[in-house]
Write a structure and sequence with these properties.
Radius of gyration: 14 Å
Distance between the termini: 19 Å
CATH architecture: 3-Layer(aba) Sandwich
Number of domains: 1
Structural class: alpha/beta
């Protein structure tokens, strides 16, 4: 999927949790000149890291069913405001509702399994695999779990 050769900039919604997931996500988009909006949960790190970039904050659902429901409503709200052509994520669970909503509304989905997963997949990757138009793993052992994935590295 070529993201950078287009006469009109596409809208990319980049969603991840903070910390390493966000760092990997930002590295994956480095050098891509498209209209990118980040969606993350709010921490001091994410506020500082995304200063000067288009971004929105969304609730971190972690393992709460109520928070996942709130996250899903927020995801729908931001999806309708941004109308992205592409959703790209490195996880974690914060991205699941947005990926499902995006797939239902016709966005292309790119999921990059975190580099922290070398031999076993994350639960988020297992849930998002069936929705992804492009699924990338960073280590060869994960191809056993995701046979249609592409092997690539970010860092």
């Amino acid at each position: 999927m070529n993201l950078s050769n287009s006469s009109q900039k596409r809208k990319i919604l980049a969603i991840s949790s903070g910390g390493g997931h966000l760092t990997e996500l930002m590295h994956s988009l480095n050098g891509i000149e498209e209209d990118i909006t980040y969606v993350v949960f709010k921490t001091e790190y994410t506020k500082e890291t995304l200063k000067g970039m288009k971004h929105h904050f969304i609730i971190d659902p972690h393992i709460s069913k109520v928070k996942y429901l709130l996250n899903a409503f927020q995801a729908l709200w931001y999806y309708m405001r941004i109308r992205p052509n592409i959703i790209i994520s490195t996880g974690a669970g914060i991205a699941i509702p947005m990926i499902i909503i995006g797939k239902k509304f016709g966005s292309k989905i790119v999921f990059i399994e975190t580099g922290a997963r070398v031999t076993t997949p994350s639960r988020t990757a297992e849930l998002c695999y069936k929705y992804a138009d492009l699924f990338i793993v960073q280590y060869k052992p994960l191809l056993e779990f995701f046979p249609n994935a592409k092997l690539g590295t970010l860092l």
